[in-house]
Amino acid sequence: MELRVNRVKAKLERGECAFVAGTFTHADDIDAFGPNGFDGIWLEGEHGPVDAADLGNLTRACDIWGMSSIVRVNKNDQGLIYRTLDRGAQGIIVPHVDSKPEAENVVAGGKFPPLGKRGLFTSRQGFGVPDYLDQANDQTLLVALIEDILAWENLDEILTVEGIGVFFVAPSDFAASMGHLGNPGHPDVRAKIEDALSRIVAAGKTAGTLAANENVEHFASMGVRFFFTATSPWIAAGARSFIEHAHAGFKRA
Fold first, then answer.
1. Are 213 and 231 in contact (CB under 8 A)?
2. Are the beta carbons of 124 and 90 closer than 8 angstroms?
3. Is 215 helix (H, G, I), strand (E, B) or coil?
4. In what helix (H) or strand (E) does residue 71 lie, and over which residues does it extend?
5. What is the total count of domains within the chain?
6. Side-chain-side CA neighbours of residue 42 (13 Å)
7. pLDDT of 110
8. Residue 14 located in a structural domain
9. pLDDT along the chain (253 residues), means of 10
10. Are 43 and 72 in contact (CB under 8 A)?
11. How far apart are CA 181 and CA 77, in angstroms?
12. Quick one: which of 22, 65, 20, 62 has its CA closest to 45?
């Protein structure tokens, strides 16, 4: 058996855009979303209910459709990072990476030696793959969240760390760290976010961010290649449209 290709990582390494949707908490929902052409699924282990016991089924559902399973953990802990990979995740998202040493810790937990210090155990992804330990680093995506003004201040140093596949600028926490709680659209916040994304791209690294229908084209034009979007706004918009059309017909009746 060959190790599954990490679709998101492969597309990014080819210089293409990668599209990741979330957040899903049940394998059946991932299975139903599978035909829509996205490259990966964001599994929420920081603010959502996903934990180690869930990951087997959730990552298997991603595998069925060839989508990368990417899990946000709740802290920058090496043991937590590699246990999540052992449970079948193809990628890890680590919150609040604010300094070069913190970025190095992400790599230490997420990559096998000599790149990192990941514990020498296979993964569900490695079952039946005899040379899994030799190949795993190439198929493991590490995403560092740049979500504090401190990370913006230390960004040039953070970007020197090898082994991180995506530097993802997260708007809401970024805004809060600047004193604009709940207002990521504030001009000062937007300026810092766009500066961070531009510096990531200029450094030859892969930039990622949260995007919606209204701004994804703009971010793509800046060179952002990793896009995360939540499905809940689509559901809400569709629900509103359905009700509005029904009311319009009722008024004409």
1. no
2. no
3. coil
4. strand 68-72
5. 1
6. 23
7. 98
8. yes
9. 96 98 93 96 94 95 97 97 97 98 98 96 94 96 97 98 98 95 95 97 98 95 97 92 94 83
10. yes
11. 27
12. 22
In a domain, 12, yes or no: yes
CA distances 251 to 24, 169, 237, 240, 246, Å, are 37, 46, 21, 17, 9
Token reading at 67? 């989508």
Number of H helices, E strands in the chain: 12, 8
Q: How many residues does the chain have?
A: 253
Note the pTM of the prediction, 2 decimals: 0.95
Tell me which residue range forms the domain holding 109: 7-252
What would the two tokens of residue 30 be?
């991932």
CA distance 142 to 94: 8
Which pLDDT score, from 0 to 100, does residue 6 have? Answer: 98
Task: Find how far residue 149's CA is from the centre of its chain.
Answer: 20
pLDDT of residue 212: 93
DSSP classification of residue 162: T
In the prediction, which pLDDT does 1 show? 85
In angstroms, rounded to a whole number, what is the distance separating the alpha carbons of residues 129 and 2? 6
Residue 1 lies in a domain: no
The CATH number assigned to the domain holding 37 equals 3.20.20.60
In a domain, 56, yes or no: yes
For residue 215, which amino acid is it? N
- Catalytic annotation, residues: 47
Separation of alpha carbons 18 and 9, rounded Å = 8
